[in-house]
Amino acid sequence: MSFLVWPPEVNSSLIFDGAGSGPMLAAAASWDGLAAELNTAAQSFTSITSGLADQAWQGPAAAAMMQTATRYASFLNEATAQAQTASAQAQAVVSAFESAQAATVHPFAVAANRNSFMQLVMSNLFGQNAPAIAAMESDYEQMWAQDVAAMVGYHGGASAAAAGLPSWTTALQGLSGQLSGALTANPAASALTSLDSAASSGPLANVQQNIINAINAPTEFLFGTQLISTGPTPALGGNGTTGNVPISLYANTEALVNASVGTGSAVPLLVDTGSQGLVIPFQKVGGIVGLLQLGLPVSGGISGYSGGLDYAYLTYNAPVNFGGGLTTGATPVDVELFAWPTSLSSALNGGWSFQNFFASDGASGVLGIGPNATGPGPSIPTEHFVNSAFNQGVLINETPTGQYLQFGAPPSGATALTTLSGAPITNDLTVEVTPPGGSTTIYSNVPSIVDTGGVNGTIPSSVNASPGDTIAVYGPNHQELYYYVYNSTYFPTAVSSGELMNTGAAPFINFPAYISNDANTMTFYSSL
């Protein structure tokens, strides 16, 4: 594990930074309270239905309802037991954390040792400080060993608690199957299906999701594990030469693909041709425990995204799993530790965390796949599949006829419309601006970035355009990629003349596009 070789400066900071055991204690208390409520509900429900069965409930319909009620009471009892277990495991995590914190050297003590050591070294002109330096180094080594021992104990206790966490998904699926069976067997009870429909949509669904998010927060932070799963189960697959994975469009502009890193669950990643590398919060790779299981980081630093977000990260070599056998080899992944806004608008709109910043995109992380993009990651995960045939390139199909990514060779049998040299950064685009009732102005070789993650894109001041103008963008061979009425049917942000024009999602909504990793090109097709 990483903490076995991390110095005390790192281990001590990890254990003393953050909220401490308070959130987990609150979670334990909440789970205990929920268990008590569920137990009371189960006993009350059983008592009432048993009384009705002995008195007013008679006949086949009553017998079917009693059977369903018994199954529901059984589910309540199972949920009670699972909530009690969750409370006990949360208490175990608290005990493991507090024991580890008590056994860990305080960061101030480590810093004082290092400061004294540096002062002794700098003043050691004639070797007079050699004994004191040796004593400081001995103390430092003892701190190192003490921290490692504390973290080993913490890892063992937390891992044991995580292994004992119950699965709510199985219980909920069991309840769903029981109710479905009861409804199938008893048509008279089919009216209950309207309740299920109401609970899965509208305001009730929003309330349910907020409750589930609150329940999941503590264990997702520590372990990257949701007690109640909210993740999708996409149908994925691949053959010998290509591999397909479905995508979804958030707000009709941003493509999302589900993938997992390390012990984390599959989460939605923004498919971004405008950047390079995978960036994902540590909560989504398995939390603190999952981060430790990734091994030693190979690098780290500070990076950011346009729009007003900077973040600190560590880079780990880890596989990325798209499901269905589509897995990369160990590839550099930037794991975000914490983030902060770099602009007032970002600060006012959720830029105090990585996840909040990208919440408006529906994404938990960013998968940058642009071969000539400038970062922030060191490499593109989709160039490192275990099956090397998938590394040739990626087809992005955001059109209404089918929404998926296809890794591997270019599509066969499809008609290529135009090919851009450079992906995503290119000088091959031509922009034509036509004012209402006016003549057209042509701008050739406009420096651009063809960016799936650019939403509505940008337009530089070097392209003289005003709201209401019709703007058409062409590739080589005068192939129109998209057009719009400025600030009426498309809303690009105005930027200075020295910046790239960002196409945003428009060309990808109109046409499938294939990025060749080897040739650094982007080809648009008429259809697939």
Automatic annotation (TrEMBL):
InterPro entries per the UniProt record, alphabetical: PecA_C, Peptidase_aspartic_dom_sf, PPE_dom, PPE_sf
Ranges of residues in domain PPE: 3-165
One Pfam family here: PE-PGRS_C
Taxonomy, superkingdom: Bacteria
GO BP annotations, alphabetical order: response to host immune response
An MF annotation (GO) of this entry: aspartic-type endopeptidase activity
All copies of domain PE cleavage protein A C-terminal, residue ranges: 244-520
Protein family membership: Belongs to the mycobacterial PPE family.
Protein name: PPE family protein
The species this protein was found in: Mycobacterium bohemicum DSM 44277
